[in-house]
Amino acid sequence: MSILGSLNWDDIFIVPFFKEPSTSTAIAAAAGGIVVLGALAVLVLLTVKGWWKPLWTNWITTLDHKKIGVIYIVLAAIMLIRGVLEAVVMRAQQVSPAPGFLSVEHHAELFSTHGTIMIFFVAMPLLIGLINVVMPLQIGARDMEFPFMNAVSLWLSVGGAALVMASLVIGRFETGGWTAYPPYTGIKLSPDEGVDYWIWSLMLTGIGTTLSGINFAVTIYKQRAPGMTLMKMPIFAWTTLCTAILMIYAMVPLAVASAMLALDRHAGFHFFTADAGGNMMNFANLFWLFGHPEVYILILPAFGVFSHVIPTFSGKKLYGYTSLVWATVAIAVLSFTVWVHHFFTMGQTAHLNAIFGIATMTIGVPTGVKVYNWMLTMWRGKLRFSTAMLFSAGFMFTFVIGGITGVMLANPVISFAAHNSLFLVAHFHNMLIPGLLFGMFAGINYWFPLAFGFRLDEKWGRRSFWLWMVGFYLTFMPLYAIGLMGAPRRMAFLTDPAYLPWLMISMVGALAVLAGLTSQVIQVWVSVKNRESLMVPAGDPWDGRGLEWSLGCPVPEHDFTTIPNITSREPWVEAKERGLRVMEPTEFVDIHLPKNTSMGFVVAMVATVGAFGLIFQMWWLGALCWIAMFVLVLIRSYDTDWEKTVTAEELRADYERHKHVVETTPKVSLDDEFTSKNRGLVIDMETAQ
Amino acid sequence: MFQNLYQRSRHLTLPALLAGSAVWLSGCADNGVMSPLGPVAAAEKTHMIVFFLWMLPVCLPILIGLPWILIKYRRQGGSGTYRPNWSHSTLAESVIWGGSTISVIILGVLVWMNTINEDPYKHTGVNPIHVQVVGSEWKWMFIYPGKMASVNKVVLPQNTPVEFDITATGAMQSFWIPRLAGQIYAMPGMQTKMNMTTGDLAQLEGFNSQFNGAAFPLDKFDVDVVTKAQYDAFLQQPRKPWNELLTQFKKVATWNGPQIFDAPPKGWWDKASMNPDMATEGGAAILPDNAPEQKKIDEAIHNELHLTQNQSQGGAQ
Ligand code: HEM
Ligand SMILES: [Cu+2]
Ligand SMILES: [Cu+2]
């Protein structure tokens, strides 16, 4: 075997097009071209503008949880653009006259990358990023418990995403869907590097996610402000804790399953092959032992977001705190008991199916309770329809519809008739788009000022909401319909003429979603351009209720000048009721913050190169990189000079500065909340004295 | 501002929702569970509707209450009272937790009964016809033990219980005839079962619903539900020798050619289900790199599309 492993000329993205020109290969070549040109454009821009140095010192080497969170969200945004574009291409493929412009396998590559990207490189970075930015600020912590590990997690996820992008340029991705069931993904039926791309990109981000889970959980256990008992924690911290625990336990079966698949493929093992005692059903079980908790990893943080956005924009205390906490915990525990519902059709006994069906529906109880709690939070409130609030309301309505079809699918008999159909595809998008994306969009619109100091433009935000909302219904309601008419999922072309009108509606919907995404890009652009008029330095632009709104926007690197003593669930609301606009300082002491380091980035990039080696069977490269990685981590472990000190005087000066800003900022009423008069000191004049 | 919102939602969201609910009311299509032919599929449809209806007591209050709250309690122009510190009500808690628990208990009992009753392993009548199935890359073999074998075509007498014994070679597949019954996986090295009772005379389509590569859209078969006499005549038809089927089946990716053959030797299917290579050498004929075979797949897709187009034109007259 050559030193370049299985790599050869045909793996370069444009070669297949010249060998066999067709629309399908042309699209593949164009996609690869976009990646290459995009990367080049970024490099040129950075060089011309002289941004390399600031990028390196402010971002790449940072250990600040807020900046790490922002990078996660930027990663998610880039991947979301790819994911949505792929979705639009798939919808276009199915409305064009059969057999469409894509080959069956190219279409398969698209749904496989779309699914993999949306789950692992959009949804996960979004929620991990948001948690990174917000959670420490809510619990009175100055950073994550393990800031260096946090950077490693981040860059491992970026490395995984980079591999998925690389598959557009070098070689190709797999075609077995985001679930990659063997034996189809075994070496016999999928001999090329596609499945290895799936295995190793997921391995990288999976390790990153496990480490994030550990980080979040330990931070919450150990870094809460004095007096903040568990039952005084903000709900977002609660959902983070449950998500973190799910991450720690759920990512392991995925890593195990994909490692076993790798051994099957390249080391002659027979875990999942049809012969020599292998059993593919073990893969399905392991995968969904990860996969079902995964959907709650995705959804719980969004539940946390809604539990803050809704009270804030209803001007009212959260209804049923205790109920919400227990519902969250119940969901987290139950999520490990239902995985079989993903394969009721695998031939196990009816009793087993029935038990898992009932367990699945049981999750409906705490979930239903949550929706009612949010509704009762709005009840007798004074609702203001910010972008964040619109996304929350849109979520509640839409999510309930997805819940109905979810409970239907929990009945094994109905699952027999809807599994592997577009009905199922409609169902899970019906959960994920409101339950994950809308939640994250709401959270980003709501908490954006904490990281950047200015609000996002409301006009474009609301436009994006309506386009996403309408786009969602137009895209996926028709899929419910044709799913019941017997249309299978993952089908490159559907020939039944009865489907066509529905597919057309769905196409229009996908374009609306694309327009929604475009509005969001414009929203960010416009907001950055007008940032002066959107600045909210006083730090409380929405008359907020949590500690995070007491810090000033943007939040300084050390987060808290002094750590507050917590005596209730809403210390900031109580401070404001006592007429304060700045938390009373407790004790100013010298603090230590981690110094910047490039080591997290370097370790993860080495791991990424190693993974690339494994994908193309350059075993030497893989081995070399994994050894280098451990050596680097070891070196870092012996580095004793990793902290810098911020003195009590500096903190006091910063406190005085913030106090001065707040005292000189004009108060505005809720009427002016969304205008440029809002400098971060919004007060409900109707009730406040 | 709210006025503006409200009108926009009236203009855009409602039509979308109506389109969505139309789905539930129509049940129009040809090949789905919403137009069942046999009792098994009919039961699936019933469960689907019953389940949907049982969800409404929990969900309708949200779907109606939420817009109502959004309108009534809006800050500008709303008419609701404002109680900023109201955050607990034992009554509401009991109703919410109790109500959803009760409905899940009801649904749970239904699930238990449905699942046991509609167990695909349970015979749907006395002395069902046995048909053995081998799913392969991208063709289906049906064996009427001791009588005959066929490819991509299964003929069944009307209103008769049938038991399919299912296995596969190569990748995992999912055996599905939506208008007669639900699906079950067909897995290499494994045996599964699907029981159903055929309904009235019909020409149906069954297919594999689990993606398995380049010719996945062609991975389907005809299901003819005929009279008892026609069925008996079918079993008497002239046929090709079994060995021809076996050699062909190993070699080609998509099938076009004769469909009817002698039955294999007794016990062949059982052995093949334990040792899938007996039927196709692990799917070797259809390796993605196999360029000649890929050409044939493209051709087959085009032929198939021609056929369906002609059919649907004929059907439309
Ligand atoms: C933005 C609008 C979106 C559109 C228009 C869209 C469209 C599609 C389409 C057309 C498919 C293929 C369906 C088929 O199998 O025939 C698909 C599959 C899938 N989508 Fe999306 N999608 C969207 C957003 C999302 C989001 C936000 C997620 C998750 C967070 C997601 C996750 C998935 C997954 C997991 C699959 C299954 C892939 C597979 O079959 O393995 N999608 N989507
Ligand atoms: Cu699940
Ligand atoms: Cu689900």
Automatic annotation (TrEMBL), chain A:
Pfam families: COX1. It comes from the Bacteria. GO terms for cellular component: plasma membrane. Residues 50-567 form the Cytochrome oxidase subunit I profile domain. GO terms for biological process: aerobic respiration; electron transport coupled proton transport; respiratory electron transport chain. It is a multi-pass membrane protein. This is Cytochrome oxidase subunit I profile domain-containing protein.
Automatic annotation (TrEMBL), chain B:
One of its GO terms (biological process) is ATP synthesis coupled electron transport. InterPro entries: CcO_II, CcO_II-like_C, Cupredoxin, Cyt_c_oxidase_su2_TM_sf. Its main location: membrane. The chain crosses the membrane at residues 52-71, 91-113. It is found in: Membrane. One of its GO terms (cellular component) is membrane. GO terms for molecular function: copper ion binding; cytochrome-c oxidase activity. Residues 126-237 form the Cytochrome oxidase subunit II copper A binding domain. Keywords: Electron transport, Membrane, Transmembrane, Transmembrane helix, Transport. It is a multi-pass membrane protein. Belongs to the cytochrome c oxidase subunit 2 family. This is Cytochrome oxidase subunit II copper A binding domain-containing protein.
